[in-house]
Amino acid sequence: MLSVSNLSVTFSQYEQGLRRKQLTVITDLDLEVKAGEVVAVVGASGSGKSLLAHAILGILPENATVGGTMLFQGQPLTPGRCQQLRGKAIALVPQSVGYLDPLMRVGQQVQRVAQLNGLPRSAAQTAVKRTFQRYDLPPQAARCYPFQVSGGMARRVLVSTAVVSQAELVIADEPTPGLHPDVVVETLNHLRELAQEGRGVILITHDIEAALMVADRVAVFYAGTTAEIASAQDFATGNLRHPYTQALWRSLPQNDFIPVPGNQPSPEALPVGCLFSDRCPWMTEACLPERPALRAVRGGLVRCIHADR
Amino acid sequence: MQLKPILLFFSYKLVRLALLLVAVAVLTFGLMSLSPIDPVRAYVGADMLQISAAQRELIAERWGLDQPMIVRFWDWFGQIVQGNWGTSMVFNQPVLQVIGQRFLVSLQLLAIAWLLSGLLGLVLGVLAGAFEGTWIDRGIRLYAYTLASSPTFWVALLLLIFFSVSLRLTPICCAAPPGVLAQNVTFWQHLHHLLLPALTLSIIGIASIALHTRQKLIDVLHSDYVLFARAQGESLWGILQHHGLRNILLPALTLQFASLSELFGGSVLVEQVFAYPGLGQATVQAALRSDVPLLVGIVFFSALFVYTGNTLADLSYQVIDPRIRIGGRRAA
Questions:
Q1: Bridge partner list, A15
Q2: Domain ranges of chain B
């Protein structure tokens, strides 16, 4: 359904007067999403997860340039096509209630999404009613303003916006932080349901545990590139290919609880060779001259020359 | 909306108003006592030469001017509270009557300027904010900055020279043609004389409202909820219509009511330039001719006027903004 390859995002900024600076935040990002599957995108802050979502939707700021190719249902995603598709074929489920208009009743906001999808007013109202019922939102919730709904209700309202849009691809950007564990499970189940209806779902998160609960495949991002794409089972069976993924897995409390030493390199000072080389226990001379390409190893994709061992 | 919070709001506001007026009274009385105007001389006026020093002392004693300041303040304040505001020397009428008449004349001017500057300021601000960085935005900002930094009386003079002297489109002064009795002035003559002063006053008001609206709209357009609206496929026009206007309306309304004070200040200068017989012009005359009772009256009146404007702004929040209206009461 969606295939992203060699995506790059560059911002041009002015620094000290009129000197223009190019800042490449995403380099060589790859991702593939099929209909009916949940792909989790995992990575630390600043690894380019949210920018990927904004690039797919075509809502990056004006000073950003996008390189590489993005194909949606076989056709390239040009800015014009993005504009046609966003909100209709591709929907965003944002992070928090802060993404709802504070002065508009939530029912009205969901109804607006349905109307933007071409439904007439009455049909949109019915769609909202049906969707709210599906997510156990009481009818009076539609008349609430965003500040009146609880965190869990807000999540269900946000998922509702994607459901009324009939989107084939749903991108959920950090839907779980700050929520009660029960609500986290509920939210993730809602995403799983969307995939079972035949939609493609991208779950952007920094929480590996949450990702593994629902995802079919997990893409691990590091400093703006895809380090590894593994199936969810690979984590439990220890079939991980990239040293960063392995380190992340070990850092979980129920595993070894060993933090990954060091920091992600800043986009202003990326190493020439492998981006993980300065923190990597497997680092050799061969890692330094150029960045490793993404290659298939044991049924997954990995960007590491030592992954076969 | 319940009645109780509104009643509470108003009683709170009334107490505040009373405190404000007392503070204004103390300040005014202090300045009055310190000013070089001698009350006896101001009262007697030109006949001062015919009065001996002994008679002058007698009057001062009769009025209690030899009393300590605090006693004099209570005497004066007691009269003010009872509604005895004294007589204006310039107009030879009770102060309250002068203020009432003059304010009615000014009111039309203020109302037209207020509505015009509010509407045009909002439109220009929205245009500039929606097309941030384009030549539309630059043009509007240039206009706003230029006007915000030019003195009111200077703009008024320029307009007067251009429209009244060069083009002869508008009358040069006053609220009616000279030599015509007040009851014979037609509506159109009236409007004709009102046009240029009202326009001047609104042109100046537009600048700050446009700049504030522009900044608020830019904040809204960079907010998370507008990003989400864009992700839903909403166009710029749709965003303005459904989210932009809704979210800038409250600050715009506050600004509009708060601008009453600036408008009142501006009217003093504009009415003077156009010789428009309103309260603003009366203020200048009272100041130039040491008409203390009238000045005091105007000080109280303007405090009341500005306070009313700000209270209306606060009230609009209570009525319009659901976050304040509904407050902590959670539904569902």
A1: A19
A2: 1-35, 40-84, 96-325
Q: Any CB–CB contact under 8 A between B322 and chain A?
A: yes
**B39-54 confidence digits (pLDDT tens):** 777 777 777 778 788 8
CB contact under 8 A, B232 and A113: yes
Which of B225, B230, B326 is the closest to A59 by Cβ? B230
The answer to whether residues A224 and A267 touch, using CB atoms and an 8 Å cutoff, is: yes
Asked if B231 and A149 come within 8 Å (Cβ–Cβ), the reply is no
Mutate to test the interface with B, among A112, A148, A163 (most CBs of B within 10 A): A148
Nearest CA in chain A to B236: A83
Contact A35, A1 (CB under 8 A): yes
Reading phi first (left if > 0) and then psi (alpha if -120 to 50, else beta), residue B6 is in alpha
The chain B residue lying nearest A142, using CA atoms, is B332
Least confident of A142-146, B70-74, B276-280, B316-320: B316-320
Q: What are the φ and ψ backbone dihedral angles of A19, each rounded to 5 degrees?
A: -75, 125
| Pair A1, A74: CB distance under 8 Å | no
Closest C-alpha among A54, A34, A32 to residue A195? A34
C-alpha angle A38/A42/A44, rounded to 5°? 160
Cα of first residue to Cα of last residue in chain B, in angstroms, is 18
Question: Are the beta carbons of A143 and B243 separated by less than 8 Å?
Answer: no
pLDDT tens string B195-212: 899 988 898 889 889 999
H/E run at residue B259: helix B245-273
Q: Please, what are the domains in chain A? A: 2-89+167-302 (3.40.50.300)
Instruction: Indicate yes or no: CB of A92 within 8 angstroms of CB of B331.
Output: no
What are the tokens at B127?
A: 């245009």
DSSP, collapsed to helix, strand or coil, labels residue A65 as strand
Q: Determine the Cα–Cα distance for residues B129 and B239; give it in Å rounded to an integer.
A: 13
Determine phi and psi for A119, rounding to 5 degrees. Answer: -75, 140
Asked if pLDDT for residue B15 goes beyond 90, the answer is: yes
The full length of chain B comes to 332
A113 CB neighbour count, 10 Å cutoff? 29
Phi, psi angles (nearest 5°) of residue A136: 60, 30
Provide the ipTM: 0.90
Cα–Cα dist B145/A214, whole Å: 56
**C-alpha distances in Å from residue A56, one per residue of A50, A66, A265, B229:** 10, 10, 24, 15
Six-digit token pair at A18? Answer: 């009129």
Give the CATH number of domain B96-325: 1.10.3720.10
Which among A41, A223, A234, A298 has a CA at the least distance from the CA of A307?
Answer: A298
At B227 the three-state DSSP class reads helix
